Amino acid sequence: MAGNISNQPGRLARAAKHVSPLHLLAGIGVTIVGMTLVTPFAFQTLGDNAFIALTIPAGLLTLAATDLAGRAPQKHALWLVFGCAIILRGYLLLFDPLLSSDIYRYVWDGRVQAAGINPFRYFPADETLAFLRDGAIFPHINRADTAVTIYPPVAQFFFLLVTRLGENVTVMRLALLGCEAVTVTLIMLLLQRTNRPVTRVVAYLWHPLPLWEIANNGHVDALMVALMMLGLWIALTGRALLGAVVIALSILVKPYVAPALAGIWRPWDLKMPLVVIAVIALCYLPYLSVGWDVLGFLTKGYLTEQGISAGNDLWLLSLWRVVFGEHQGDVVAYVVLAALVLVFKGLSVARRSDRATVCRLADINMLLLVALLLLSPNYPWYFLAITPFVALCGSAPTWVVSIGALLLSEQLDWDFYIPRMVTKSILFGGLLLALAFTALRSRMQRMSDEGLSR
Questions:
Q1: Which chain regions cross the lipid bilayer (predicted)?
Q2: Residue 10 is assigned to a structural domain of this protein
């Protein structure tokens, strides 16, 4: 009897080897769907820690699914991947946004513009806008009495266009899912271009980060990612200047994808930066009636609120302060050093002689990871910029950060709160370890190749 029991794990392992990758992929898909079905109720009952406890394992299962999808029959695997992706997104549309109320501001900004009013002029709670208030959107707007809009012009154009179809959260989320469809199409085109299995798109489609932050919370970052990917596709197919224009538009949704421009720029080509500056100026032009206030809440409170002005939430600076203490001017010094690091890294990427698509995508992925490390965002949706690269590059650092970003779903509203410094240390410490592991493995591979060539 004891011998039979001790042999059981070995038998299960041998049996698993005989299960087809497609069947294993289907099992993972069913598991992810099941976990997603219970997550809204777990969140409403037990809070954000229950959400994290369910979504991080779902991310790890997506990592396993990516390997299996590459070995499964392509046609059947794609039907399975897209079938589950549609079910997951359709289900999450049934629930009001769970983790963020930003989408209500999107609808409000579109409504304000439709009334012929500059969204950078008034707080939502300003009495001038009282005639636009309703019971469905206005009560849910965050910072309604303290902040004008923070969102740049291209985001504002999008809000205006979408709200002409319907001034509600569902229409806005459907429009953002349309942006996501563009991203998915471009991921598949780039996978084909780099001779990788298109079934790797499962890495994006089943990943819990875009699933929750777009289908449920409805973040405009979906538009930013779609424009960034479109710009990269255009540039990588030989039209770099036009690609830069589209990436400039993505920066005017949210600016933290700006490092991607370095991946398509050739050093000392002045046309591209001049074109980017021109695009930004033209897009801001319709809103300049408020002068410098066009920068919205960004310069009047957001940097302070996010702990950037004081340096409290800049992870690397916080670690420095733990060891060496806080000093006057250390935030300015950190910002200057961070900018220099990004410029140096960007120039090194731009000057690379290897312009193959695979290398350029890997370089852009790394630039975005470095930017996220230095900026240390407080919210998980800021990490959506790297989610296409889990399918395109699949590097350990990208998986670590995209899954680890779910830890930032922690909120102060619940009784059991993990300090942000702890969650960021897990997230960015994991990134640094993954980078070190990747560099070590690459070095060992080179040494092995050199040994074989002798």
A1: 21-43, 49-70, 77-95, 171-191, 240-262, 274-292, 331-350, 381-409, 421-440
A2: no
